[in-house]
């Protein structure tokens, strides 16, 4: 009888805790990219599971009862599809893909628009990386012709932008020996001499590229000149960028490229109060400290740019917070 009573009490406590707990998944990208570590930092910052100490008690400054997790995924397109399908509560995606998906334009033309997609925050600029093996002889985008090039996996924002870059420089997939691999897989192939170049879109320094550069002689190829100018003129979500010298081993000079915003999106179906609390937790002092210390791109995630470069509606909860904070009219 005593054992039964203990089990009953235990189950009651467990049930109550489960009822007070909310799970919130953040779709990121491959573990070798930038989305995944940034997602982990944010998930940690906004979480405050039942039974945890409150911020006032020296504990988490996240949302009471919330358990957030960073989920590895295929990236931008996959995250948006998962949010719309209800298998993710939120996710990271490139600004171009976000706008196209919500409006049913660009790469989303002919497919049902993700009309319930809503913005939580613009996070940081993502740089287009074109990495080539030194022995490949590749020194420009045009030199990719006839080479073995990975454009990243289906469902990734990198694949979208790699195709734009190729087209902007007068090339297509038919002009290269195209493969569709994650950056870490492409890097492994390059080490083995089976890959000449690969594209990656993400914040620098990217883990897969940094590791590769420390073990193999590679070069970062500029995305600049007339081809880049044409891309900037055609696509307003791209901006001119450069990867500073010394970002990767063996990189002696700045490398001109393009960038696009990384954005955190969710569904309009999520409760306003939940998203308000999450947005508020994203911008508290505790989160600021975690972002500044946790990743090079974390320092670029700032409240004053959270509403910049946004082409879709904000979630009402996020909108309410930004208006209170004075960064949104």
UniProtKB/TrEMBL annotation:
<keyword id="KW-0732">Signal</keyword>
<feature type="signal peptide">
    <location>
        <begin position="1"/>
        <end position="18"/>
    </location>
</feature>
<protein>
    <submittedName>
        <fullName>TAXI family TRAP transporter solute-binding subunit</fullName>
    </submittedName>
</protein>
<dbReference type="InterPro" id="IPR011852">
    <property type="entry name" value="TRAP_TAXI"/>
</dbReference>
<dbReference type="Pfam" id="PF16868">
    <property type="entry name" value="NMT1_3"/>
</dbReference>
């Amino acid at each position: 009888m005593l054992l039964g009573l203990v089990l009953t009490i235990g189950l009651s406590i467990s049930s109550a805790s489960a009822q007070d707990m909310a799970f919130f998944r953040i779709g990121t990208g491959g573990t070798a990219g930038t989305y995944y570590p940034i997602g982990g930092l944010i998930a940690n910052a906004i979480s405050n599971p039942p039974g945890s100490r409150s911020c006032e008690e020296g504990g988490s400054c996240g949302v009471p009862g919330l358990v957030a997790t960073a989920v590895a995924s295929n990236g931008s397109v996959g995250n948006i599809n998962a949010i719309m399908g209800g298998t993710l509560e939120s996710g990271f995606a490139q600004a171009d893909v976000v706008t196209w998906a919500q409006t049913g334009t660009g790469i989303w033309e002919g497919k049902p628009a993700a009309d319930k997609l809503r913005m939580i925050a613009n996070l940081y600029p993502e740089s287009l990386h074109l990495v080539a093996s030194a022995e490949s002889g590749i020194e420009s985008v045009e030199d990719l012709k006839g080479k073995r090039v990975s454009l990243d996996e289906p469902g990734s924002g990198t694949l979208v932008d790699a195709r734009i870059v190729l087209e902007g420089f007068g090339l297509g997939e038919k002009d290269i020996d195209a493969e569709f691999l994650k950056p870490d897989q492409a890097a492994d192939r390059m080490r083995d001499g089976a890959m000449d170049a690969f594209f990656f879109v993400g914040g620098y320094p990217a883990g897969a590229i940094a590791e590769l550069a420390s073990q193999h002689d590679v070069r970062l190829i500029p995305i600049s000149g007339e081809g880049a100018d044409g891309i900037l003129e055609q696509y307003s979500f791209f901006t001119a960028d450069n990867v500073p010298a010394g970002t990767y081993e063996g990189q002696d000079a700045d490398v001109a490229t393009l960038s696009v915003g990384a954005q955190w999106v969710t569904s309009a179906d999520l409760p306003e109060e939940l998203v308000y609390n999450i947005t508020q937790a994203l911008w508290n002092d505790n989160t600021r400290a975690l972002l500044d210390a946790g990743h090079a791109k974390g320092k670029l995630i700032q409240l004053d740019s959270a509403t910049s470069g946004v082409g879709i509606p904000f979630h009402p909860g996020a909108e309410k917070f930004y208006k209170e904070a004075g960064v949104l009219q």
